[in-house]
Amino acid sequence: MYLQASTDTDELLMWDVSSKQRIVDISLLRDVEWVSFTCHVGWPVLGVHPPDNGKVAAVDRAKQANILAVATGRGHVMLYQYPCDSDEVLLFISVKSETILE
Predict the structure, then answer these.
(1) Which of 6, 40, 47, 60 has the smallest set of CB atoms within 10 Å of its CB?
(2) Is-cis flag, bond preceding 44, omega within 30?
(3) What whole-number distance in Å separates Cα of residue 68 and Cα of residue 74?
(4) How confident is the model at residue 51 (pLDDT cuts 50, 70, 90)?
């Protein structure tokens, strides 16, 4: 079993849970089928590019594993096909907000 996390500096980190060791060569896990996916960086989300150079605030893959929801700190929500290897957005919603999160 493996664990992955993405940092606010867009770094993808992975660990082998059973050995409690960090995996340095993350390309070894490129084709792993993850139970859930909430990282904003990684191979399955290469096509995610928020508008206006906004920063990704949240990512979540649907349980059916074919839709990816992405939210930005500027109030945008986008739906992509999962895995997302192109920047084609299936649905775009812009929510007006007084606060911009970066």
Answers:
(1) 60
(2) no
(3) 18
(4) confident
